[in-house]
Amino acid sequence: MDKFDCGCNNVRENDLLCTLRQIDFAIVEVTLYLNVYPDCHEAKEYLKNMREKRAKVAAEYESKHGMLTMYGVCGESSDKCAPWPWEYAAN
Question: Is the pLDDT of residue 75 over 50?
Answer without folding.
Answer: yes
